[in-house]
Amino acid sequence: MKDLLCGTTIPKIFKVGTVFVEPGVIASNMPKCNEITIQYPSRLDAACTDPGKIYEYSRDNIYAAGQINFCVDICKIISVKIRADENINISEAQDCKSIILHAVKLMQKILKIDNGFDINIRNDLDLRHCGLGSSASTIQVIGAAINELFGNPIKPMDLIRYLAGNHGEEIDGDDDHLVYVQSVGGSGVCGHFEGGLIVMTGRAVPIVRVGLPNKLKIVFGIPNKYTHSDANTLIIEEIKETNNFKKASKDFSREIAYRLLNDAIPELLDGNYKPMKNFIFDYCWDMGSIKNCAYAFPDITILAEKMRPLKNDEDIVFIALSTAGPGFFIATYNASKAERIFADLDMKTYIANVYNDKYKIIERK
């Protein structure tokens, strides 16, 4: 299969429902219930384990860039009901209907069904292209819900990889097409596996999963001046940074691997968060991540420098730019202090709890 991003300067536009990575064989496709409602968390992506890999050829569109993800209770609540006909009815209040329809068609393909569905999604916080992985979590939550309706015939990792390999994001004003955007699989992993902090490597493999204290708060800050572009515009700007992300891998991959394996992860498992905090900070601030991600909002480099003293602030347990931003987040036991920090930088804030569980079934009929 031809890679959809590597070596190109033009984004790939495709029709909703297009399948690039063919599904495997499943054991059953008979529904086990008629309606289900589930709660699905969001992920904050603090760092990649090999950032250049997101621009290298992948045979199945699973990019082995790795991620360090924090799972938070900024949730989507989705209700899916099987219809007696083949219509796909998406509630009128939904944005990004193209993404929802795409996810349904992907599940119809893998389950080999033509059932219609009624779908409603409620978001705790509806923020697009800010670092919450909202598009990916929409696709993954629909996949999880429909898989539950049919008795979970698709294993979690198979489902995560299938949906990530066929990922796409919305184009403003076009409900029939999506733009291809690489997916590492973090939103799928955070929904299907327990752990408030999950380290992923390779093909979306969660190698470390750690529960974080329930009293720890996640304060998410977004610049007030930020106005999001659509995914088509953002991917064009991101492609221009390809060589810089690859250079970061070349320059720092050995240091990243050594520090994670020999310092940050062992100490994390022993309950000492400081080495992981230091690693994430150095990755974002000093290994090129924030600079390379400034295509989405150039002022993040200025904001980041003003936050540099927070590396040594004992009230700040973790701090990072999430994905390409422009959202930053602080994990802390002193949420009011984090709010003041972001407010002084002209950023609006949202406070969330750590989410240590996988997705939850709220109701099944």
Automatic annotation (TrEMBL):
InterPro entries: GHMP_kinase_N_dom, Ribosomal_Su5_D2-typ_SF, Ribsml_uS5_D2-typ_fold_subgr
Domain of life, per lineage: Bacteria
Domain GHMP kinase N-terminal: 99-169
One GO molecular-function entry: kinase activity
Keywords per UniProt: Kinase, Transferase
Signal peptide: none
One Pfam family, short name: GHMP_kinases_N
Full protein name: GHMP kinase N-terminal domain-containing protein
Origin species: Lactococcus lactis subsp. lactis A12
